[in-house]
Design brief:
With 469 residues, this protein is mostly helical. The protein is built from 19 helices and 2 strands. The chain has a two-stranded antiparallel ribbon with strand order 1-2.
Length: 469
Amino acid sequence: MANGKDLLSGILSKDRDRGTSFQDVAREYFSGNSKNNVRRRNAAVFAFGMGKFEEKMTNNVVNNLQESQDKKVFELAALDNKYAKYDALLTEDEAYKANPFYFNDKSRAKYDSIYSNSDMDMSLNKNKEFRKKEISEYEEALKKLHEEKIKTGNINKRMTKEVFYKPFEDHWKNKQKDIAAPKNLSIVHNAWDRLTNRGVTKPITAAELKTINRNSFDYLTNPDVITTEEQINRERDPSVVKYSKDEGLSFVLKNVAANDPARASIIRSFSSSEKETFTKAGLEIHIATSQVNFNPILEKNLVINQAFDANYKKINNVTETPKPAENRDLYLDYYLEKQDNLDAANNQGNPETRELRVNIFELDRTKKLIAESKFADTPEKSPLYKVQTKLEQDIKVAGLDKVEFETYKIIQEGFLHPEKGYQIKSTIRQTAKEQPGYNPEATFAFETINEYFAQNMTDLTATYEALFN
């Protein structure tokens, strides 16, 4: 099609071909004085006036064509934007029809881009559920938005680019042709068109303008709206992520080095916890606290005692070890054998040590029997008082150092006991931190393990110290 520039060039060339100037008219006007010359002079003046008027008409056409071209460029830019959106929508629709998982793939890619640098533990069911939910909700939002766009535009099949632009190109071609029509360049043509009612331009209707500018696709240029609830969350609050007992154990195994001396202690204390769910921060605190509280001597003795208990149950075909409240004599045999095993493992102990251990237990038992009898206020009158005195003398012969050492072992046995030990540890702030329901504001009987042992050593050896004074 001829554009505005070509039309302008044609108009200007016609104007130059006309060749009538004021100098030409003046020369012709004064060249004679006959009647013919007068007529000729009048005709020349008329022709000059006509030329000037048509020159003005030409200038108007030139200006109108330029304004038309500028407006076309502006409206073409808007149409280009609509076509780009239309083309993208149809390309996406074709991809969706070819692949039912198209929007799921887009949603997964969006999720992965957000959490690509996240340290989220994807072995957790909670995190797996979170990821699945976020991807599913965003996928549905994308699908819903796409289907609404297709429905709003009543789009059934793709228009080619040529078909999309044709109404626009035809409109502007006709508009420029109309501006440069002969009636707008010549007085004669203008008068003739008026007389014959030819060349009357029909106004563009609203429906035609809608088709020309593809206004039915204006909505495609609006920003896509996906609600905050439908969007993928930008971050995951660690406090809402709960580890189950098994997941927590996996976390501990993964985050405590295999060569860490405290590894077995950390795993054991975690396994014995009554809690069923854990946060990541809670697990990290448990590991750190257990490493700080780790005592290699106690840990070694605990492992030795656990092995002894397992073997004792197997040999005696029982499910539990003896308890002093149920059968004191059986418990004493069990305890003495267990301590002998511990001494042997640590290259400690001898027959004298075993005898001292028995005497300490028997003395404690004898005092309790007297205290529970009618001789509680007058123990020296009890038949058992002589037994008490004999035991005290035998303990005195052994020496204070050995008594204190055996006392330490008794305290240690209670501390390492699977049931009694848990109760003891709940009274010590240092070990209570590893137990469920720990309250940092609470008051504890002891702050540290060392404080517990020291206080109990002082209390238990006070009676024996009197024997040596």
